[in-house]
Amino acid sequence: MRKVRRVTRSIAALSAFAFLAALALPACGEDKGPVAIKLGRDVCEMCGMIISDPRFLTEVRLADNKIHKFDDVGDAVNWLSAACKTPDDATEFWVIDSKNGKRWLDARKAFYRSAETPMNYGFGAVEEATPDSISFEAMRAKTSRAKYACKSASPTDAPANPRP
User: Fold this and answer.
1) Using an 8 Å Cβ cutoff, are 74 and 123 in contact?
2) Per-residue pLDDT tens for 36-66?
3) Which entry of 2, 43, 120, 126 is 20 to 30 Å from 49 by CA?
């Protein structure tokens, strides 16, 4: 009789565990929002530097659901350009509020103020517009560098014997 009770309890426990695991699985597939950046350990996708300043954290999630981490919003803008992508190609584009380094903001809806940033692009994100802030598109125009522009044209597209 005791053996039957133990087996019954074990089956009930396993069933409960399986049920809870099944509930958790859909949540695993729904990756949304920014992920934690480990300051002093995670590396910027663009420049390869260790991310250390919490006021300028930036993350981009593309359609493949992979998060790309950056130490400066300017690095994220130029990384997208070098990959022949635009901010619209990102399913999510997050920046940290540079005032407190704790609240994540949608980068495309945030405003940008002049700041001394890790890679010297010069903009920190803020949630509210101020007289000295600019829009995402204005910040993007000021931080875009020609050397990172998309180079999607293949070398075979160029003339074989260009003349000076």
Assistant:
1) yes
2) 999 999 999 999 999 999 999 999 999 999 9
3) 126
Rounded Cα gap, residues 70 and 76, in angstroms: 6
Determine contact, residues 114/142, Cβ cutoff 8 Å. Answer: no
Q: At what angle do helices 73-82 and 136-143 cross, to 10 degrees?
A: 70
Where does the pLDDT of residue 92 fall: very low under 50, low under 70, confident under 90, or very high at 90 and above? Answer: very high
In one-letter notation, the amino acid at residue 26 is P
Q: Taking a C-beta distance cutoff of 8 angstroms, is the pair 88, 62 a contact?
A: no
CB atoms within 10 A of CB 79: 19
The string of DSSP codes covering 18-77 is HHHHHHHHHHHH---S-----TTTSB-TTT-PBP--GGG-EEEE-TT--EEEESSHHHHH
- What pLDDT sits at residue 144? 96
Place of tokens 């992920």: 35
Q: Is the pTM of this model over 0.70?
A: yes
Domain ranges of the chain: 54-148
Distance CA 19, CA 156 (A): 57
Structural element, H or E, at residue 84: none
**In this structure, what token pair is assigned to residue 110?**
């945030």
Q: CB neighbours (10 Å) of residue 10? A: 10
